[in-house]
Write a structure and sequence with these properties.
There is one protein chain. By secondary structure, the protein is an alpha+beta fold. It is globular. It starts with 5 loop residues before the first helix and ends with a strand. Bound molecules: flavin mononucleotide (FMN). Flavin mononucleotide binds next to strand 2, strand 3 and helix 3.
Length: 203
């Protein structure tokens, strides 16, 4: 039965969450299980791709939590074009998830209280090493080996201004399982009303 309010559909777990959760569980012993590749589009129309760490899902949503530095190149990409695609390969179970959707950047300037609270909480949850990276010299600039690189280590309470939370909200997911002969491939698409459609397609 369709929900009366389409947004209820978004609040419930998307159908791809179950196979993704299973993959995360079955591959949990791998050191790189939380690393995925996130592609964006540069302002000149060229693609850009990089590895990021999945930091869990935003509560009661299907949005992936990622973090990044405000000074990094991808910020300009996202401001200009919020569309992104993530590719996540699980080597133990030999399956790939491609997630296509919109990126929402939450910076120091974000006025929405709930989002700002989430940014602060995500900062607090980081390891010391992960927090320290936001005190490093500006990413991408020529390195000055004469200058000390490490600043004082930031504490969980002292959120550094360049720390950004990035929410990635998929509208389409393509799941390919190499195990099986023939292989399995499932596509999930979210309609503008929020309802997910699932279809098995040829691999
Ligand atoms: C294993 C691994 C994990 C990474 N995790 C992140 C991350 O969570 N966030 C991030 O912004 N960059 C992360 N990076 C660095 C990015 O891959 C990239 O080099 C950096 O963000 C600059 O990208 P940009 O110039 O496209 O903005 C990670 C790199 C590796 C190799």
């Amino acid at each position: 039965m369709l929900p009366e309010n389409p947004s209820e559909e978004i609040m419930s777990l998307a159908p791809w969450r179950s196979p993704l959760g299973k993959a995360l569980h079955l591959n949990r012993s791998l050191a790189n299980v939380k690393y995925l590749q996130l592609a964006t589009v540069r302002s000149n129309g060229h693609p850009a791709n990089r590895t990021v760490v999945w930091r869990g899902f935003r509560e009661d949503t299907n949005e992936l939590k990622l973090i990044t530095d405000f000074r990094s190149q991808k910020i300009a990409d996202i401001y200009e074009n919020p569309w992104g695609e993530a590719c996540w390969y699980f080597s133990r179970t030999r399956e790939q998830f491609r997630l296509h959707g919109k990126l929402l950047l939450i910076t120091e300037e974000t006025a929405d209280e709930a989002l700002q609270t989430l940014r602060v909480q995500t900062w607090k949850d980081l390891s010391l090493g992960a927090r320290a990276q936001f005190s490093w010299a500006e990413p991408g600039l020529p390195r000055d080996f004469h200058k000390p690189f490490r600043m004082e280590l930031p504490t969980p309470e002292e959120i550094l201004p360049d720390f950004c939370l990035l929410l990635f909200d998929p509208i389409a997911v393509d799941h390919l399982q190499l195990r099986g002969d023939p292989q399995f491939r499932t596509k999930y698409d979210r309609s503008p009303g929020g309802k997910w459609n699932t279809i098995a397609v040829n691999p």
